[in-house]
């Protein structure tokens, strides 16, 4: 099967995204199952035209005889509706038609908006999409497995929390504990953070206020967790993060992006490289040439491979023959910023080859600067704590005018 992480499709990148994906689908045409993991849109750039192009791709795969699973997450909801809800209804009609019943090949397409356990290519998989708090049902199940029981018992404390996201975390953890207890060798396709866990190559840490899974799930060797959500792909213990298929900002610099081929029989995973819009940041005191850039890209590639060093995962890599320089957004860390003297920073031919070039002031003492920051990192247990800091700052700064700013920040999902 082929696993595709967060797409966040928009007009600017839709053609490159669809072209790259179609190339992979054509190259690996023997793969009969395609799993699209969540986040097709971006809250800050909802683009219905781009979504319709993505829907057209689903139709093409369906027409080729593929089994397509389209799973939803938080970015894929508009109010109480899923962005592909009308498509789901259309396919329900198609798949119940008589000619579909007569088809022996059994391909299908499913828009998954509620949790379900399915056997896909011989493997029992829990499809765990985002769903609305209003859909939460009472769960009194008590797991027999001791570790799962401790997770479930701890989750009951979250049920009584004041924060609505902690209460949501309670339900997700209790539900997942029950599913694993019933299916000890379960594979979980999910889209949640892991509580209180700062992965060595990740800059952020999240908690139950961000809606998160209990970190003890990482210590259960019989299960496998596969997710998107975090845009940097990596593996850690039993957890494989697919990342995103493209960079959504310059903050995702020096991150490789992949589509993943997963063999359910051998359990091997192959990372297939994508180069839709790489954000590359390098430091050099001499003018960068193509040879230097290619060497830097190879070093970045090796670092990204190291992110998949978990001994519980067998990860192989399909090498990219030559990077597409025309897709690269290159940021150069320089001693001073002067766009009139670009020839001092980059070779003219390379400058013409790259998609875009940015200069950034090189701050060598960034670590000491961060250490002097007034807020201790020990006080920040998750992303939601940053939200609290922003909220307190805005309240102090704008006083009685704060509510109108709060409304905008909430619309932007910053609070």
- The CATH class name of the largest domain reads Alpha Beta
* Overall radius of gyration: 23 Å
User: Largest beta sheet: what is the strand line-up?
Assistant: 6-3-2-1-15-16-18
Helix coverage percent of residues? 25-40%
Structural class: alpha/beta
Head-to-tail CA distance between termini: 37 Å
CATH architecture of the largest domain: 4-Layer Sandwich
CATH superfamily of the largest domain: Metallo-dependent phosphatases
How large a portion of the residues is in β-strands, by DSSP E?
15-25%
CATH topology of the largest domain: Purple Acid Phosphatase, chain A, domain 2
What is the count of DSSP helices, taking H or I runs of 4+ residues?
11
Number of strands: 20
Low-confidence stretches: 97-104, 373-377
List its traits.
alpha/beta, 415 residues, seven-stranded mixed sheet, 20 strands, Purple Acid Phosphatase, chain A, domain 2, globular
Task: Describe the model.
By secondary structure, the chain is α/β, with parallel strands linked by helices. It has helices at 14-27, 48-63, 85-95, 98-101, 146-159, 164-182, 290-306, 348-353, 366-371, 383-398, 402-411, and strands at residues 2-4, 33-37, 67-71, 77-78, 81-82, 109-112, 116-120, 123-127, 187-190, 193-194, 212-213, 224-227, 234-236, 239-241, 257-262, 268-274, 279-283, 314-317, 329-334, 356-361. The strands form 5 sheets. Strands 6-3-2-1-15-16-18 form a 7-stranded mixed beta sheet. A 6-stranded mixed beta sheet has the order 7-8-9-12-14-13. Strands 17-19-20 form a 3-stranded parallel beta sheet, covered by helices on one side. α5 packs antiparallel against α6 (164-182). 33% of the residues are buried. Residues 97-104 and 373-377 have low confidence and may be disordered.
């Amino acid at each position: 099967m082929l696993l595709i992480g967060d797409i966040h499709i928009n007009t600017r990148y839709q053609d490159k995204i669809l072209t790259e994906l179609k190339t992979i689908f054509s190259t690996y045409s023997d793969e009969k199952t395609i799993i699209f993991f969540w986040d097709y849109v971006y809250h800050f750039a909802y683009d219905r035209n781009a979504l319709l192009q993505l829907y057209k791709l689903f139709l093409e795969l369906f027409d080729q005889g593929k089994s397509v699973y389209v799973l939803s997450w938080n970015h894929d909801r508009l109010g109480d509706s899923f962005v592909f809800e009308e498509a789901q209804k259309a396919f329900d009609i198609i798949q119940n038609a008589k000619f579909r019943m007569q088809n022996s090949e059994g391909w299908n397409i499913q828009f998954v908006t509620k949790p379900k356990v399915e056997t896909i290519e011989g493997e029992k998989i829990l499809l765990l999409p985002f769903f609305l708090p209003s859909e939460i049902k009472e769960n009194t199940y008590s797991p027999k497995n001791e570790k799962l029981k401790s997770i479930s018992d701890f989750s009951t404390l979250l049920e009584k929390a004041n924060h609505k996201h902690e209460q949501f975390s309670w339900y997700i953890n209790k539900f997942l504990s029950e599913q694993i207890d019933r299916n000890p060798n379960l594979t979980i396709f999910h889209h949640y953070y892991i509580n209180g866990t700062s992965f060595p190559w990740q800059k952020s840490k999240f908690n139950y206020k961000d809606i998160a899974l209990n970190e003890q799930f990482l210590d259960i060797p019989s299960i496998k967790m596969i997710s998107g959500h975090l845009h940097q792909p990596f593996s850690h213990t039993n957890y494989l993060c697919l990342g995103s298929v493209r960079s959504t900002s310059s903050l995702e610099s020096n991150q490789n992006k992949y589509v993943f081929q997963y063999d359910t029989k051998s359990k091997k995973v192959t990372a297939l490289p994508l180069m839709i819009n790489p954000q590359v940041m390098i430091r050099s005191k001499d003018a960068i040439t193509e040879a230097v850039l290619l060497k830097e890209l190879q070093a970045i590639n090796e670092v990204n491979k190291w992110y998949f060093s978990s001994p519980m995962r067998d990860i192989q890599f399909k090498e990219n023959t030559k990077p597409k320089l025309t897709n690269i957004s290159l940021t150069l860390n320089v001693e001073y910023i002067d766009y009139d003297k670009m020839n001092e920073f980059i070779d003219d031919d390379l400058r013409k080859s790259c998609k875009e070039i940015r200069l950034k002031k090189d701050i060598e003492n960034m670590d000491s600067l961060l250490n002097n920051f007034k807020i201790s990192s020990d006080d920040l247990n998750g992303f939601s704590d940053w939200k609290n800091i922003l909220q307190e700052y805005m309240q102090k700064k704008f006083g009685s005018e704060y509510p109108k700013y709060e409304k905008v920040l909430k619309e932007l999902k910053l609070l």
